[in-house]
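Re: magnesium ion structure - here you go.
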Amino acid sequence: MKICRFKDRAGKIKVGLLNDDGTVLDLTPAGITALQPLLESADPLEALRQLPPDLPRLAPSEAILRAPVERQEVWAAGVTYLRSKTARMEESDFSATAYDKVYAAERPEIFFKALAEKVAGPGEEAGIRYDSRWSVPEPELALVLNSAGKLAGYTIGNDMSSRDIEGQNLLYLPQAKTYDRSCALGPCITLGASESEARTWSIRMAIRRGGAVVFAGETSVARIQRRFEELAGFLFRCQKFPQGAILLTGTGIVPADNFTLEAGDVVEIEISGIGRLQNTVAVV
Ligand code: DO4
Ligand code: MG
């Protein structure tokens, strides 16, 4: 089951059930007006099974999908795929040892990514920095965690990154990772999938420029070398998230080193159990 946030024709933000044909069931008449209470409930799927019949069904053009995040902070894990470790070590002599060590260390790399209000939703512009010469998207499975740190669902995350800034000096990581619209999320939250089911999902990314595909890559969630519970456990260690949190799980798709994003590029990320997130790139 997939839940979403959407804007209706009157501009009101609502919560809905996203169907495979793109139509949306408006959950407002059922008293569901926000994602968080649903994510906090012991069994969100059970709550949704009690829905009244005859909920309004909206065509995709009547329900504009928004990022499925309300007040949660967005965090991200890094170097969870071997591909990411290799790329990072090639990108910087300065930081190679740190990346090599963190891949196998007990404690994962986790960094702050975005506040909800800075996140780009489906169809919105994702940002590249004007002072970066090497910008890439990072397509990642995102864990939707409730305030107890329990995995409530999954969405798609794009951890937009400036690799030249990241590679120059590890201390520049927050600037490489966190700026306006550096994170995109969407199109919905998939509920009720166990970690072992999510590990069967594939992740694909295509980047289009002037209609032509300039990069395409694929990986599998199964290649993430840490358990989801382990990543969530480190995020929630010594820190409370009363609104819950979203945790990106790292990238396993890295374009060739001579590739950089340009304004107007269209980034499309697909995760088989969730859907497709598309954003156009803009300079910020
Ligand atoms: O410090 C580097 C971050 C790596 C990252 O974001 C990833 O592996 O996805
Ligand atoms: Mg990343």
